[in-house]
């Protein structure tokens, strides 16, 4: 019944937030494709508009409300009926409450219910009204769903869902649930299949990949998983996210010893102050973090270390912030995602009053950004004069005559497109680029040889 209702319908998906949301969107897209729907150019051409949401920061709520409301002004699609659906973390958190402020939403589905989105949308097309499903648990595993990947050369591979850490500022455990690891054989079968299809790079996904296997084996076995995935023949392996408290020596050894694992580690520090880290419920100190990255660099000297940092956590003093600045300089981050603290209802940190003036927090944020720009620039200088393998992802948004790709260290790399060449010949291929220009946010150089 669902397939007969959705066959021929068009859809578009807007995705906010983390890589797990991107993967969920690929699964929803694949499900709709399997039911006979097909992707539209954008909301104006779509019978179905889906918003896959993130609730980590307040800005995501604002963005969702604005974009959903803007759908009211769209002309009717050729079918005469448009269904608006909201899924993901905000849907799981707010459920039917979303309808109070977004009166044009028809379907709401939570993080555990994406396998049912086709049925929910079909129900609204057939009977009208609203369809809401935000179950805490589902029997249907989303990883068994078909998917529609954005590219043919890269794939997201979830190895676990949920989180057990309950950082005091974070809503994720409440909307994604507790940690649940996939069986190792399922992951390996998926990666092996991707290799056969020509995928060059995979990203292993989890809220805390370093905890992989704790619920299955009584202890983390992420290092073992890395070694087994590395034996499948996949060319490039990356992973996210890593919690410092669970990064074990055996995982560092695996990273150093497996050729396919990229020399890049995203290790969120959040603050350089042990006092603030304790209030964040992070379970490590400043000294622990610095000791950890020294151990990583001892085994992988050229590692690109990236991180997340929150500025303005409730009660952060100027002294606390200075400790964050000094840690950032000592850590020599290749990149950092910097955020001003955003209060999330339902988290312990939301109950903490903070009298710090907004202008002081903004000043700290700008000072941190300046330090990160300095360390990122310094890291990129190490590539000057080198020749590196780059996986081409497309062309530069600013210059269609320049190819754009990623280095093994996750740096953006640009190079001129050869005269008369078609960019399509290079997308998804590996090329060697001799680096002659190093900037804060990108590298550029000249092609050496052809694509492979």
**Strand segment tally:** 19
* Euclidean distance between termini CA atoms: 46 Å
Q: How much of the sequence is in beta strands?
A: 15-25%
Shape: globular
The largest β sheet comes out as: 6 strands, parallel
Name the helicity range.
Answer: 25-40%
**CATH topology description of the largest domain:** pyruvate-formate lyase- activating enzyme
Class derived from helix and strand content:
alpha/beta
* CATH level-4 homologous superfamily of the largest domain: tm_1862 like domain
What do these coordinates show?
- The structure is a single chain.
- This protein has 452 residues and is α/β, with parallel strands linked by helices.
- The chain has 3 domains: 2-133, Rossmann fold (3-Layer(aba) Sandwich); 157-381, pyruvate-formate lyase- activating enzyme, CATH 3.80.30.20; 387-448, OB fold (Dihydrolipoamide Acetyltransferase, E2P).
- Helices cover 33% and strands 21% of the residues.
- It has a 6-stranded parallel β-sheet with strand order 2-1-3-4-5-6, sandwiched between helices. A 5-stranded mixed beta barrel has the order 15-16-17-19-18.
- Helix 9 (222-230) runs parallel beside helix 10 (249-257) and helix 13 packs parallel to helix 14 (358-381).
- It starts with a helix and ends with a strand.
- 42% of the residues are buried.
